[in-house]
Every structure is written in C-alpha cells, then in structure tokens.
Amino acid sequence: MTAGAPVSSVVIVGAGQAGYQTAASLRERGHAGRITLISAEDALPYERPPLSKAYLKGEADETRLWLRPVTYYVRQSIDLVGGTVTGIDRDARRVRLADGSAYDYDHLVLATGARPRTLDVPGVGLRGVHTLRTAQEAAALRSALAAARHAVVVGAGFVGLEFAAVARESGCEVTVVEALDRPLARVVSARTAEHFTRLHRGAGTQLLFGQGVTALHGNSRGT
C-alpha cells in the first residue's frame, strides 16, 4: 500500500469459499482496512463439498468443515457478522441487515453463491422433503436417513448422485429422477455419464431418465 493512501473498508456479502477467500487474499496482499464478512448462516465459513459425502455419512463433524478456526479471523482482524442483508444503499455506501444493523463500505463484494432450485409442484412443503446446500440442511438429512427406508432424489447432478450413494450405503432403497436423458448431462460426456449410470445401478439405485416430477405426496410416516 502506498504511504499516505487512505485505508478503505471492504464489506463482503456471503461467507462461502469465495467470500472467505476474498477476505483472506486481501489480508495476504496487505490490505490494512476494515474487512467485514457477512454470512446468512450462524456458522464459521466452511467447505460445502463434504456436506454430501463425509459430513452426511457422519465421518466428519462441523469443525472439519471449517475453512479456518475462529482464531484465524481474530488474528487477521476479519469481522464475522451473522445476518441477512436486506438492502444496499449505493449512494450512502451502506449495507443494511434484517436486524436493523448497517455497515458502511468503500468497496462491496457480493459473493452470495447459488441457491437450490426448488420444484414448482404441489407438495414441496411436505415434511420429509429436503434440499441440500447448508450444513444445517445436511444435518437434517443425516438425521432423516437414520430412520428412512426409501429415498427419492430429484436431479442427477453431482450432489444428487453423491447423496444417492450415501443413502444406498445407509440401507435405503433409492430412486433418482432426472429430466434429461442421462446423469451429469451438463458437465460430462455421454461416455462418462454412462459410467456413472452403470456404477449407480450396480449399487442398486434405480435411475429414471427423461422423467419430470409433477407432484409430491406425503406418507403415513411423514418422513
């Protein structure tokens, strides 16, 4: 930093891998101003890939998901804030949270990531219908798997197939429903997709391709 240059403050909305790495890289490159990292979750920044694998299987606890322990943020003077951003005042350079608090910035980084696309069909609000993106959702799924006998997965992407594999290992009968004609159609070749198809069918998972979901219905167990 040039001597005498003003010290700017940075607010980062989103504490996933991108948000965390932005904060860490700023400190590594000598940024001396205030860094505020805002997370919608009440948790330290953590890795998401293990949620559908080791964490879901109970082989990793929450601390093994952390990108860094809490002491790192203290040493690096990175302010971790939990809350939901409800407004950005670009003229005033201010971010407002649902609890009424506000944070001023010189530079604003939006690193909110993506949300699971929910189904627009009847029954999506039933008990036993889950999404998987956060550690809290993974913990709920892990608990549900302990008593479940059947699982239906909508979508044969990486997360869907990883969950299907874990569910099969736990003893569930698993059906995967995919609207396209093969798994992972947007990210791998047809030959690679066929390999994954054989792999999952060989493990006992039923794969339904070219099928859409029109409604979800509850059952007597409510799970």
UniProtKB/TrEMBL annotation:
Keyword Flavoprotein: yes
Swiss-Prot/TrEMBL keywords: FAD, Flavoprotein, Oxidoreductase
Domain FAD/NAD(P)-binding: 9-220
An example molecular function term from Gene Ontology annotations: oxidoreductase activity, acting on NAD(P)H
Cofactor: FAD
Keyword match Oxidoreductase: yes
Name of protein: NAD(P)/FAD-dependent oxidoreductase
